[in-house]
Write a structure and sequence with these properties.
The chain has 3 helices and no strands. Helix 2 runs antiparallel to helix 3. It starts with a helix and ends with a helix. The relative contact order is 0.18.
């Protein structure tokens, strides 16, 4: 299963929680390396895109 299909299967509330956790992991107090921060920031962006797609549906 791809990450995109995994995101599509999650509830909207679950996506919001996951995005909040990812963003927390991009802060200096939690993340170790720059690559870890970038990974979580990219994942949060993908989650935001999925949420935007859901909000655009009629």
């Amino acid at each position: 299963m791809s990450r995109s299909s995994n995101l599509a299967d999650m509830t909207t509330d679950g996506l919001r929680d996951e995005r909040a956790a990812c963003l927390l992991l991009t802060t200096d107090g939690y993340a170790g390396s720059e690559s870890v921060k970038e990974f979580h920031a990219d994942y949060a962006d993908r989650i935001s895109d999925e949420l935007d797609t859901r909000n655009a549906r009629p």
